[in-house]
Write a structure and sequence with these properties.
Elements lengths: L12 E5 L5 E5 L5 H41 L1
Antiparallel strand pairs: 1-2
């Protein structure tokens, strides 16, 4: 059974690790607009990546449909 991590106490430092491996350390009491902008940019990048993945899935599904349509005519 996995051990739960202890809850953070007030004043703890929070480490934010992005998908690109960048690390931003933010003191909870001093969260700035710059810190927020970093997180917003990361979210926007993730959303863009998800849209690209969705489009790729759609393209593959269409290709598979076309192939099965052709096979159905044979």
């Amino acid at each position: 059974m996995p051990q739960s991590q202890p809850e953070e106490e007030e004043g703890d430092v929070v480490e934010i690790v992005t998908t690109t491996g960048d690390r931003d350390v933010v003191d909870e009491g001093h969260f700035t607009s710059e810190s927020a902008q970093i997180l917003i940019r990361e979210i926007m990048g993730c959303n863009r990546d998800m849209e690209n993945i969705k489009q790729n899935i759609n393209d593959v599904q269409n290709k598979m449909k076309n192939i099965t349509d052709v096979l159905g005519r044979v």
